[in-house]
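Reader question, answered in our methods column.
A reader sent in the components of a multi-part assembly and asked whether the whole thing could be modeled at once rather than chain by chain. We filled in our standard form and ran it. Here is what they sent:
COMPLEX SIZE: two components
ENTRIES:
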Amino acid sequence: SQKIEQNSEALNIQEGKTATLTCNYTNYSPAYLQWYRQDPGRGPVFLLLIRENEKEKRKERLKVTFDTTLKQSLFHITASQPADSATYLCAAGGYGQNFVFGPGTRLSVLP
Amino acid sequence: GAVVSQHPSWVICKSGTSVKIECRSLDFQATTMFWYRQFPKQSLMLMATSNEGSKATYEQGVEKDKFLINHASLTLSTLTVTSAHPEDSSFYICSARDVGGAQETQYFGPGTRLLVL
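And here is the structure of the entire assembly that came back:
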């Protein structure tokens, strides 16, 4: 069955460093991947989408890559801040198909 | 940007009662809305896809008679948890797909926390 995995349940980094989160998929060839931020007790907020024919996407301090050979997406937050602390969800989708969400990685940026 | 609201934001009810949760798209039309459930420290699990004017499509393992979905207009979908039991306690989140937007775009509501005593 289709499976989305995120590298770790929790990740702690120091303020100012770059946070790198990993999303791997198996038994699946998604047309696009999306990254969401979810704060406790809140719904997910869309951050970035990257399509299968795109290698990299950037938005301010955020960068996403999509490697269809490795079946992996990397999500980077540069110059991280304590306000970036949240759970980040990876979701894979295909046209006409519903999203499949990963379990999320809880990021803590320490001051 | 597009906004999706949910009401109520949290509800506590007794076992055996029914609870209705509303999901509204505030500034766009949504022919398709999705209902998810999320247990603590777990990811979002799709329960059903709600299409305006037609029956909802339920994911495997989701009881359609227990989780009633109605999508009567392009801006409103409701989820009714019938005869709720403590195991139904969870965080319910809806999302909506903008009719006029890219197919990949889904906007999520803030969620409804349900506690069944």
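What stands out: Chain B has no helices and eleven strands. The interface with chain A takes residues 4, 6, 34, 41-46, 49, 91, 93, 95, 103-111, 113 of chain B (CB under 8 Å).
Send us your own complexes using the same form.
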